[in-house]
Amino acid sequence: MQSKDGRDMTLLGDLVLSNKLVLYDIENQAIGWTEYNCSSSIKVKDDKSGSVYSVGAENLRRHLTF
After folding, report:
1. SUPFAM superfamilies given for it (predicted)?
2. Under DSSP, is residue 44 helix (H, G, I), strand (E, B) or coil?
């Protein structure tokens, strides 16, 4: 698949990423994932404040926008 500007790209759909925890590294233009039980919560750290939050799967889905 190619983007509008002709660059090669790969599109990963929901079947490939089902039950995966996905990390998008914008700065280094990289993507990674690992197996994960998506009904479980994850811990997220705020780099600026150092605070750690536990985020449940139901909260992630509710706040996703496309």
Report:
1. Acid proteases (SSF50630)
2. strand
